Amino acid sequence: MTISHTYPFPPGGPSKIDRLLQGSFDLHHHGYPEISFDCKTRMEDVDEMSIARNAGMTGVVLKSHMFPTVGRAYHLKNLVPGLEIYPSITLNYTVGGLNPMAIEVAAKQGAKILFMPTWSAENDIERGGMSHHLRHFIDRAESKLKPGKGIRLTDSHGKLTAECRECLDAARQYGMTVCSGHVSPQESIALADGAKDYGIEEVIFSHPDSNSVGANLQEIKDMCALGAVCEFCALGCLPALQRIKVKDFVSIMSEISPDKVILTTDYFFEWAPPASETMRMLIGSFLMLGVPEADVRKMVRTNPARLLGLTETDLDSIAQKQAAQALVDGRPFF
Question: Which residues pair with 264 in a beta bridge?
């Protein structure tokens, strides 16, 4: 296998967009296979990761709607040295739903992110989100994923269930970052509030603009008031979806502060560009709309690094390792 060590910069060399992309993190990135061999991505994981590495990105969190990504991350880190690749687990029915033992097993193999249910969430099923997309690939999805058969984090009184609380306790034990997944805004608010009982002060409010979640601005503000960080995914701005415009992201950011935002790609489909390019597009769009470079840096580097539990010392150590690897590969590290 031959991996390219080059990355094409604009005429004249790296621009300020490239310099913001350098050192960035993508905390929401799918790989292949995902769901089915028929659900393709733009390129093989090893090629896609090498492009992110060559662009100067610091790290990527691999997400799967189906299984923990621990094995995939382990092998990719060996194949693409110079990029931090973090595994995760998503609490869908394929891992037993709200299953603390599955969390423990994933954590002991390096999982850093815990996603609450996505296509298995009752909210997603009711709204026709990812659960509906699954029907194109999984025969039993039509009969199994019906309203009333999904997972909820709260009981009839709006309180977190014992199962959800046990999962939060496992996340606390292993220092994992919690994402709200595709549960409802009301469940997400209960999650952010209840997480504090376990010393988890920040959760990630997963793409609240998506149809799978369906949050309004006030619910986003309520989440941020509880310490949550709001995720803006580049995927939602791409032509095939166009569920939101970048200027709307900027408007929401101005309401909640860039300290409460992370930019991710949600890299997934065959028609989507490589994640590093999608992230670059989002960074450039924010700059074009007048967002200061310092605020963009917070959203792609400072905030994601904090959520991963990385200190400035950690980041310096990673940068040194990446610079050394770039020298070995014979590629620029700027």
Answer: 233
